[in-house]
Specification:
The complex is a heterodimer of chains A (231) and B (768). With 231 residues, chain A is of the alpha/beta class. Chain A has a single domain, classed as Rossmann fold (3-Layer(aba) Sandwich), CATH 3.40.50. Chain A has seven helices and ten strands. In chain A, β9 and β10 (220-226) form a beta hairpin. Helices cover 54% and strands 16% of the residues of chain B. Chain B contains 25 helices and 20 strands. Among the domains of chain B are: 59-191, no CATH class; 373-438 and 626-768, no CATH class; 444-618, no CATH class. Classes of the chains: A alpha/beta (231), B alpha+beta (768). The interface between A and B is large, with 42 and 35 residues.
C-alpha cells in the first residue's frame, strides 16, 4: 500500500446500544502513512470507533471498509482472519498472557497465521531488538515494568506487519517516563511508514505522535485538523 | 437487611450463571447422593428390609391336626398368625405344571405375622380361587386366569400373585377351599422377640411347642434358612449395587467440592473489595458462605426430592427380587442428603474462603485471576515450541494453571470413566453369561416328542410322537434347512452320597455343537461320561475326573466327570446317549433341537415337521432374557448415564470458571486474530486433555474393580467366576472405553466453550 491510499473508510457509521447512541453517522478516512489521534471526553464514542475499525464490534448502520474490505460482510471467523494479518492492536492494559513469556506472547500472533514456532520466535527476537527489550524476552509479564509490557504489546501488534496499528490509550496505564518511551516508539514506527490510529486522552501523545487530530463529541466528529509534530 | 446479607444477595443476583451452575450441580449431586445412599442401604440388607416390611415369620411350623387342636396352639406373649389349614397339591397332571405345591388356607394376606403382599390380581376370596407365591415380576408361564385342573379335586383358577418373604406357602386359597382340598397340617407362623441366631429360634420354638403332645410338630422352617436361600439366589446384586452406591457418593462429593471452591476462588477480587470498604474478615467469609449457600440449599432441596422421585424406581427395580414390595428410602438417607450436602458445600467454600480471608485486601484486589506456578509456566513454554496448532497447545497448558481445580475435575472424569468401564464390563459379563446359559437362538427349532422321563404322563394333551425315535431323527435330518440336530432325553436320578437329586440330560447327535458351552474338559463322547456345572462340583466338593454313582428306575451306574459346562442350574448333568442305556435301556428321545440354515423360514420348517409327524409339539422360541440380567443391565445403564452426566457437569463448571477467569486473555486472543472456532478448540482441548488422562486412569481402575465385583457377584450366586464372565474387555472395547473420558470432557466443555468463543472482545478488553 502506498502513502495516500485510503486504509480506513468509515461512512455514516451509527452504533446504537439499548440506551444510548455511541456513534451517530460518523464518517472518517485514514490514509496510508497517517498517524491519526482520536480525542474526546469519556463516553464520546472514541473506543467504539476503534472497535469498529478493528472489527471487534459491528455498526448498527453505515459501512466500515479497511484495506478495501467491507467488514460488514465478514463473519466472525472472517473478522478474526482479517484482524490476524490486517490489524495490530495495543491496549491500555497491555493484555498479555500471564503464563507465556514475553517472547512467546509476541510469537503467538505469528503462530496463529500458521508460522512455525521457530520462525515466529526468530521474528519476535528481531522485534525485541528493534524495540530495545531484547534482554527481557524470556521474562514473564508479571516481572516486566509497565513500559516494558507495553513495548511487548506493541511488538505483538507488529508481529504480522499489519498495515494499520490501532492503539487504545497506549500510555494511559504508564508512568510519565514509560509513557515517553512508548510515545517515541509510536513516532518512530509512523516515521518509517506505519499507519497509526490512536485513541487517547493524552494531548501530549496526540500532538507528539499524530499528523492529524480528530475530536469526537457525542458520536460525531466535532473538529478535525492537521498537526505539526512537536519534535 | 444487614450488610452481609445484602452483599451476598447482590452477588447471587449479579452472578446468575454461577448461581445456576451451583444450584444445578448441587441438585444433581443431591439426587445422586440420595440414589447412592439408597442403593447402599438397599444393598446392605434387602432381605432384612423385605422381611421387616412383611413382619416375616421367624418360625413357620406345621402341626399334626390329629394331635393338636387350634386352641392348643395359642400362646400368650408371642406374635403369631394361624393356625391355617395346610395341604399339598400335586399339579403334575394339570395343564399348568407347577410341581408339588404347599397350599395354605388363609382368609386374608394381612395379620400380625407374614403380611403377604399381593402384587398382581387379588387375594382368593371364593372357592375355586388360588393365589400363587411369586417374587414380584416373576409370573413364569402362569398368569391371572390360568386354570389348574386336578383329578378328583376341584379346579383352581389363579386370581393373583403374592409374595411371602417367609416362604410360608407356595399358594394360598380360602380356608373353606383348603378344608375341601383335604388339609394335612395346621400351619402356625411366629415372630419372636429375639431370633438373630439358630439358638434364639430354637429357644422360641421350644416355648411355642411346650406342652404339646409328642409328634404334634411335623416340621419347621426358620427364617435363617429362608434368608440363606434368598441371599444365595439374589445376593448377586449386592456387590454391584454397593460399588455403584460408593461411586455415586464419591462423584457427588468431588463435583460439589470443585464447583464451590471454584466459585470462591473466582471471587477473590470481590472479597478484596469487600474488605477494602470495611467488611471484617469474618463478614467477608459470611458473605461468601451465604452467597454459595443460597443456590446450594435450593439445589439440595430440589435434588433430594428429585432423588426420591427418580432414583427410587431404579433402586426398586434392583431389589424387587428380594420381595421389597414398596421401597421407601430410610429417613436417614434423606436427612444425610438434605443436611450433608449443604455442610459439604459450606466446607468446600470454607477452605478457599479461609485462604482469601488471610490475604491482605490490596493483594487480593490486585491478584491476577490466574495462578502461576513454575511448573505451569515451564509446560506452557514447552508447548509453545511444539508443532501443535497454537489453540491446541494453549489449551493443553491451561489445566496446569489451576492445578487444584484440574485435579478435582480429573478425578470426576476418572470416576465417570471408571463407572462406564465397570458398567460396560458388568453388562457384557451378564450378557455373555445370559447368552451362554439361556441361548436365544433364532435359528433353532425345539420339538417335544413326549413327556420328559420321570414325570407322569399329563393325559391327552401331552405330545406323543407318531414315528419312532430313529424315524423322527432321520426325518428331521432329511428336511431341507436342517444343519445340525440334537436328540435329548431327561431323567431324574439319585446321586449316591448326596441328599439332592439331579436331572441328567442325555444327548445324541451334534451335542458338542448345540449343547451347553464346555468351560473345561471335554463334551462327553462315550458311555459313562458326564459334564456338570461348576455349582454342582462346588456344592458336592467334587472335581473334574471324579466318579459319581447315579441311580434311576432301579438301575445304578458309575459316571466320570469329564468336563464343566456353563449353565445356571446346579443340579443338571449332561451325558452321552450311550449312558442312558445303562439306566433306561431302549428309551426314546423326548425332545429334539434342530439348527436350521440361514434363511430357513421357521413356520415352513415346522409345518413340514408336523406334516410328517403330527405327534410332535413345536415349542415357542425361547425367551432368552433373564429378569436378573435385565435389571442389572438396565440399572447399569441408568447409573452410568447419571454418573456420566454429573461428571460432565463438573467439566462444564470448570470450563465456565476457566473462561470467566480467562475472559481477558480470550478477548486478547480474539483481538489478534484467533477465530471463535479456535477459542472453542482451546477450551475444549483443555478439558479433552483431562479426558484423555481420565480415560487412561479410569479404564484400568474400572477393569480392576470389575475383576473384584464380578467374582463377588459370582460367589454370591454360588458360581465360579469363569472366563466368560471375566474376559470381557477386548481391544476394540478398551479403545472405545478410553475415549469415554474424552467424550465426557468434550460434552461437558463444548457448550461453555462456545459461549466463551462468542464473548464480545470490545467489552472484555476495555472494561478493566
Amino acid at each position: 500500500m502506498q502513502n495516500g491510499d485510503a486504509v480506513v473508510e468509515m461512512t455514516n457509521v451509527r452504533k446504537e446500544y439499548s440506551d444510548s447512541v455511541a456513534l451517530d453517522g460518523l464518517s472518517l478516512t485514514v490514509r496510508a502513512g497517517e498517524a491519526v489521534a482520536v480525542m474526546g471526553p469519556s463516553g464520546s464514542g472514541k473506543s467504539t470507533l476503534l472497535n469498529m475499525i478493528a472489527g471487534l464490534d459491528r455498526p448498527s448502520s453505515g459501512s466500515v471498509v479497511v484495506h478495501g474490505t467491507d467488514l460488514g460482510v465478514l463473519s466472525e471467523t472472517g473478522l478474526a482472519l482479517f484482524r490476524r494479518r490486517g490489524i495490530g492492536m495495543v491496549f491500555q492494559f497491555f493484555n498479555l498472557l500471564d503464563d507465556l513469556s514475553a517472547l512467546d506472547n509476541v510469537a503467538l500472533a505469528a503462530q496463529l497465521t500458521g508460522t512455525s514456532a521457530g520462525q515466529a520466535r526468530k521474528r519476535a527476537v528481531e522485534l525485541f531488538g528493534e524495540l530495545g527489550i531484547a534482554h527481557r524476552k524470556n521474562v514473564y509479564p508479571a516481572q516486566l515494568s509497565g513500559g516494558e509490557r507495553q513495548r511487548v504489546a506493541v511488538a505483538r501488534a507488529l508481529m504480522n506487519r499489519p498495515a494499520l496499528l490501532l492503539a487504545d490509550e497506549p500510555t494511559g496505564a504508564l508512568d510519565s517516563r514509560s509513557g515517553e518511551q512508548v510515545m517515541d516508539l509510536l513516532l518512530d514506527l509512523n516515521q518509517i511508514g506505519q499507519t497509526l490510529l490512536l485513541v487517547t486522552h493524552d494531548e501530549r501523545l496526540a500532538t507528539r505522535c499524530a499528523t492529524r487530530l480528530i475530536e469526537v463529541v457525542d458520536g460525531r466528529i466535532a473538529r478535525e485538523h492537521s498537526l505539526e509534530r512537536a519534535l | 437487611m444487614n450488610a452481609v446479607w445484602q452483599a451476598a444477595w447482590a452477588a447471587v443476583r449479579r452472578r446468575k450463571l454461577q448461581t445456576i451452575v451451583i444450584g444445578v450441580v448441587v441438585c444433581a449431586a443431591s439426587a445422586t447422593l440420595v440414589m447412592a445412599l439408597g442403593l447402599l442401604e438397599a444393598a446392605a440388607a434387602p432381605f432384612d428390609r423385605a422381611f421387616a416390611a412383611q413382619q416375616g415369620a421367624h418360625l413357620s411350623a406345621a402341626f399334626d391336626p390329629e394331635k393338636v387342636s387350634e386352641a392348643d396352639l395359642e400362646r400368650e406373649g408371642t406374635d403369631s398368625a394361624g393356625p391355617f389349614l395346610q395341604t399339598t397339591v400335586d399339579t403334575s397332571s394339570s395343564d399348568v405344571f407347577l410341581g408339588s405345591l404347599t397350599v395354605v388356607g388363609r382368609p386374608d394376606p394381612g395379620g400380625a405375622v407374614d403380611r403377604v403382599s399381593v402384587w398382581q390380581g387379588r387375594w382368593a376370596t371364593n372357592p375355586g380361587e388360588i393365589v400363587l407365591n411369586r417374587a414380584p415380576g416373576t409370573t413364569g408361564r402362569t398368569e391371572v386366569g390360568s386354570r389348574i385342573s386336578l383329578p378328583d379335586r376341584p379346579a383352581l383358577t389363579v386370581v393373583g400373585f403374592a409374595h411371602s418373604v417367609t416362604g410360608s406357602a407356595d399358594a394360598w386359597v380360602t380356608p373353606a377351599q383348603a378344608r375341601e382340598l383335604g388339609p394335612t397340617a395346621l400351619q402356625m407362623l411366629y415372630r419372636f422377640a429375639k431370633a438373630d441366631t439358630a439358638a434364639d429360634v430354637d429357644a422360641g420354638q421350644a416355648r411355642v411347642t411346650a406342652g404339646l403332645p409328642a409328634g404334634a410338630l411335623l416340621g419347621t422352617l426358620s427364617h435363617l434358612t429362608v434368608k440363606d436361600k434368598a441371599t444365595s439366589e439374589l445376593g448377586v446384586f449386592i456387590p454391584f449395587l454397593m460399588i455403584f452406591g460408593v461411586l455415586g457418593l464419591v462423584v457427588a462429593v468431588l463435583i460439589v467440592a470443585n464447583v464451590v471452591s471454584g466459585a470462591v476462588v473466582a471471587g477473590l477480587r470481590h472479597i478484596g473489595m469487600l474488605k477494602a470498604i470495611g467488611f471484617t474478615p469474618n463478614q467477608v467469609m459470611a458473605v461468601y458462605l451465604v452467597m454459595v449457600s443460597i443456590p446450594a440449599v435450593a439445589g439440595c432441596a430440589l435434588g433430594t426430592v428429585a432423588g426420591n422421585l427418580f432414583a427410587k424406581p431404579v433402586v426398586q427395580d434392583a431389589v424387587d427380587g428380594f420381595g421389597v414390595d414398596e421401597l421407601s428410602f430410610a429417613p436417614w438417607v434423606n436427612v444425610v442428603a438434605a443436611l450433608g450436602m449443604p455442610v459439604l458445600v459450606a466446607l468446600a467454600a470454607l477452605v478457599p474462603a479461609l485462604r482469601a480471608r488471610r490475604l491482605p485486601a490490596a493483594r487480593v484486589i490486585s491478584a491476577g485471576t490466574t495462578a502461576h506456578t513454575g511448573r505451569a509456566l515451564r509446560i506452557q513454554r514447552w508447548l509453545s515450541g511444539t508443532r501443535l496448532p497454537r489453540s491446541v497447545s494453549l489449551g493443553l497448558g491451561l489445566p496446569f494453571a489451576r492445578a487444584g481445580r484440574s485435579a478435582l475435575t480429573l478425578a470426576a472424569v476418572v470416576f465417570g470413566v471408571m463407572t462406564v468401564t465397570l458398567a460396560v464390563g458388568v453388562t457384557m459379563s451378564m450378557t455373555a453369561y445370559n447368552e451362554a446359559v439361556r441361548p436365544n437362538h433364532a435359528d433353532r427349532v425345539e420339538l417335544l416328542a413326549g413327556p420328559p422321563l420321570g414325570l407322569r404322563v399329563p393325559g391327552e394333551e401331552a405330545p406323543a410322537a407318531r414315528l419312532s425315535d430313529a424315524e423322527d431323527e432321520s426325518m428331521l435330518r432329511s428336511l431341507p434347512g436342517t444343519t445340525a440336530l440334537l436328540a435329548m432325553s431327561q431323567l431324574e436320578t439319585e446321586v449316591a452320597g448326596g441328599t439332592q437329586k439331579a436331572m441328567i440330560s442325555f444327548y445324541r447327535g451334534d451335542g458338542a455343537t448345540l449343547g451347553p458351552r464346555v468351560l473345561t474338559g471335554q463334551w462327553p463322547d462315550g458311555p459313562g461320561q458326564v459334564v456338570v456345572p461348576s455349582r454342582f462340583l462346588n456344592q458336592r466338593g467334587l472335581s473334574v475326573g471324579d466318579t459319581i454313582t447315579v441311580a434311576a428306575r432301579g438301575n445304578r451306574t458309575q459316571v466320570r466327570i469329564v468336563g464343566v459346562v456353563l449353565t445356571n442350574n446346579a443340579d443338571q448333568i449332561f451325558a452321552d446317549w450311550s449312558t442312558l442305556d445303562r439306566l433306561v435301556p431302549g428309551a426314546r428321545a423326548d425332545s429334539y433341537q434342530v439348527r436350521t440354515a440361514p434363511g430357513t423360514n421357521r413356520d415352513t420348517f415346522t409345518a413340514a415337521v408336523l406334516a410328517r409327524d403330527p405327534g410332535l409339539r413345536v415349542l415357542p422360541p425361547r425367551d432368552g432374557t433373564s429378569s436378573t440380567a435385565v435389571i442389572i443391565i438396565s440399572a447399569a445403564v441408568m447409573l452410568t448415564l447419571v454418573l456420566g452426566a454429573v461428571a460432565a457437569l463438573g467439566v462444564f463448571n470448570t470450563v465456565v470458571l476457566n473462561a470467566r477467569e480467562r475472559r481477558r486473555d480470550l478477548g486478547m486472543l480474539k483481538s489478534i486474530g484467533m477465530t471463535p472456532r479456535q477459542v472453542t478448540v482451546l477450551l475444549v482441548t483443555s478439558m479433552g486433555a483431562l479426558g484423555v488422562v481420565g480415560g487412561l486412569i479410569g479404564v484400568p481402575v474400572g477393569i480392576a474393580v470389575h475383576q473384584v465385583v464380578v467374582p463377588a457377584m459370582a460367589r454370591a450366586g454360588q458360581a465360579d467366576a469363569v472366563d466368560i464372565l471375566m474376559n470381557v474387555y477386548h481391544a476394540p472395547t478398551l479403545a472405545l472405553l478410553a475415549l469415554t473420558g474424552v467424550v465426557i470432557a468434550v460434552l461437558g466443555a463444548v457448550v461453555p466453550a462456545r459461549g466463551a468463543a462468542r464473548l464480545s472482545i470490545a467489552t472484555v478488553l476495555h472494561n478493566e
